[in-house]
TrEMBL record:
Transposase IS200-like domain sequence ranges: 11-149
PANTHER family hit by this protein: TRANSPOSASE IS200-LIKE DOMAIN-CONTAINING PROTEIN, TRANSPOSASE, Y1_TNP DOMAIN-CONTAINING
Lineage: Bacteria, Candidatus Roizmaniibacteriota
Annotated Pfam families: Y1_Tnp
A GO BP annotation: DNA transposition
The protein's name: Transposase IS200-like domain-containing protein
């Protein structure tokens, strides 16, 4: 039986919830350096200003751009890395943008992980999965779902491996993360977008049961299989 969301509807200008977890639900991030390495790979391909150190035969070091950047093919709108899985909210600029990004990130991180921990074989539960975001309402609620992932064990604004702290103004926005498409929905004359978005995300647990159920059902087709999630 195929995994949910394994078949992907690829389209230019479309948004997706892309995710994967460790093989047999194993952890894929074991320490801080693992998380930072995954984020570094995202930055490497999505930051238009990224430069990599290369050494010339004479020992001199120079900064050069990578050969195949992805910033003109796909945008990252939100993310959260958890111990045994990751969530990315992406928008395709070109039809193959998401696939190219996820393939290179998954393969490079897997190589790093296997080398560091002296192991072999895949670290992933198959290829990445992707759920097509059909509506603007789904898009906004999906960003909240992604950012609420760490809420079971800590305050989400303090979680270092999520884009939430950027959305609420606690961290500077990096060049490889685009927050404007979400934040623009929460700007008003009374409140700035950071405060409004915080209320939207953190207010979810204060909703009455009927509304909470309704909003969860809205994005259920986009979610990880809940019974397999930590």
């Amino acid at each position: 039986m195929p995994y949910k969301n394994q078949i992907k509807r690829l389209a230019e200008g479309a948004c997706y919830h892309a995710y994967n977890r460790g093989h047999n639900r194993q952890q894929i991030f074991l320490d801080e350096h693992d998380y930072r390495t995954f984020l570094y790979i995202l930055k490497k391909y999505l930051d238009p200003d990224f430069r990599e150190i290369k050494y010339l035969p004479n020992g001199e070091s120079v900064l050069v751009a990578i050969n195949k950047p992805m910033y003109n093919k796909v945008e990252l709108h939100a993310y959260c890395l958890m111990p045994n899985h990751f969530h990315l909210l992406v928008k395709q600029i070109s039809r193959d943008g998401m696939s190219r990004l996820l393939n290179v990130v998954s393969s490079q991180y897997s190589a790093y992980f296997n080398n560091k921990y002296e192991r072999e074989g895949t670290i992933w539960q198959g290829t990445y999965k992707a759920a097509f975001v059909k509506t603007e309402e789904q898009y906004l609620h999906l960003s909240r779902y992604i950012h609420l992932n760490p809420s079971l064990f800590m305050q989400i604004e303090q979680y270092p491996y999520s884009s939430y702290s950027v959305f609420i103004g606690k961290k500077k926005q990096p060049n490889w993360l685009r927050v404007e498409d979400i934040s623009c929905h929460f700007a008003s004359l009374q409140k700035n977008s950071e405060e409004s978005y915080r209320r939207f995300v953190e207010g979810y647990n204060k909703l009455d049961e009927d509304r909470c159920t309704k909003e969860t059902e809205l994005i259920r087709p986009l979610m990880l299989d809940e019974e397999k999630e930590i």
